Amino acid sequence: MSEDLKKFEELFKVLTTGTRDEIKEAKRRIEKIGREDRPLFRRADEFVFKIIADFDCIPDAEHKAAVISGMSLFYLALADGYFDELKKFIVKNLQYPDGRVREAARKTGEWLFISLSSRAEPFVYPEDTPLTEEQKSEQIIARKQYIDFVAEIESLIDQCDDTDEDAEYIDDMKPSVHKSLQLFWDRLTESPSYRRAVEQSRSIPLEIFMKRKEIEGELENKLKEAGSDFDLEYIKQIIYEEDGTDSLTDIIMLFDTGQGADELQDVLEIVNDAWNYFPHKILDGLSPAERLLEYGR
Questions:
Q1: pLDDT at position 1 over 60
Q2: Sequence-ordered alpha helix ranges (H) in the chain
Q3: Domain locations in the chain as residue ranges
Q4: Residue 245 binned pLDDT confidence (cut-offs 50, 70, 90)
Q5: ∠ at Cα 202 (208, 232), nearest 5°?
Q6: Local confidence band at 259 (pLDDT 50, 70, 90 cut-offs)
Q7: Is residue 295 classed exposed, middle or buried when 0-12, 13-18 and 19+ CB atoms within 10 A define those classes?
Q8: DSSP of 199-267, one letter per residue?
Q9: Which one of 30, 75, 198, 244 is CB 3.0 to 4.6 Å from 285, fit for a cystine?
Q10: What would the pLDDT profile of 40-55 be if each residue is shown by its tens digit?
Q11: Cis before 130 (ω within 30)
Q12: What whole-number distance in Å separates Cα of residue 70 and Cα of residue 14?
């Protein structure tokens, strides 16, 4: 192990055995190294996997949580190349009995979400710059990882005891493995990149596809007429994340320019069509029209 990486070994010994003040200082020093020498974290893969291998030997939850928290910048540096290995560690600890460990896993696991989002939709400038062949290949891999990861979390949620069935919102749930998994699932699925990954992964019936394209064109025209600062993707995301009729009202308000009754009726019809033909998270990424088509079959 290089001298530079030995710094990490010493700091993680503190995270494993130190007092609260010592742990706080060790985390501060890790963050300082991150600001000064970010590439060092990318060379620390073997070190991180040793931490993971030895993790169960840490005797108490407080120090387990400290170690997971201390791994945050390593996840930032390594998640793209070692996604599956790092994911397993987070999933395991999201189910740990102690809430401190689960919360540390949830926060460090944020970097898995960042990795998936950035690879599923690589940043290019200008916006219309074509992706390279390498980016296209990585995009395919990331989208599959994203969808499979969400499905894995959903499967774990389904296995949990439904002790909070009366809770209207996740924040209303009592601290539990179930709540930690729900919070993590919500973070993963709130991103437009996840919505688009699901759309790309499914075969859309031709009549739904054609109608959806027609609605998209009509909405874009209406946004231009209204001089709106918002775009089609913004409307799609509102519909995807919808939590009731308020979301529908929010969309209609985007086109409110004080127009007459006839123009308003036209907007209402287009928005209603968008609501019925665009995907909703609550319907597992399907649109109401697709769900109705399934029932008909």
A1: no
A2: 3-17, 20-36, 38-42, 45-54, 61-70, 72-78, 83-93, 99-108, 110-120, 133-159, 177-189, 192-201, 206-226, 232-240, 245-253, 261-277, 288-296
A3: 1-57, 79-199, 205-296
A4: low
A5: 60
A6: low
A7: exposed
A8: HHHSPPPHHHHHHHHHHHHHHHHHHHHHT-S--HHHHHHHHHT--SHHHHHHHHHTT-SS--HHHHHHH
A9: 198
A10: 999 999 999 999 999 9
A11: no
A12: 11
Q: Spell out the residues 6+ positions from residue 182 whose beta carbon is closer than 8 angstroms to its own.
A: 157, 170, 173
Give the Cα separation of 117 and 188 in Å (integer). Answer: 9
What pLDDT is recorded for position 197?
A: 93
Model pLDDT for residues 22-35, shown as the tens digit of each residue: 999 999 999 999 98
Rounded Cα gap, residues 257 and 253, in angstroms: 9
For residue 181, the tally of other CB atoms under 10 A from its CB is 24
Crossing angle of helices 288-296 and 261-277, rounded to 10°: 60
Q: Residue 78 carries which side chain, given as an amino acid letter? A: L
Rounded Cα distance between 283 and 168, Å, is 17
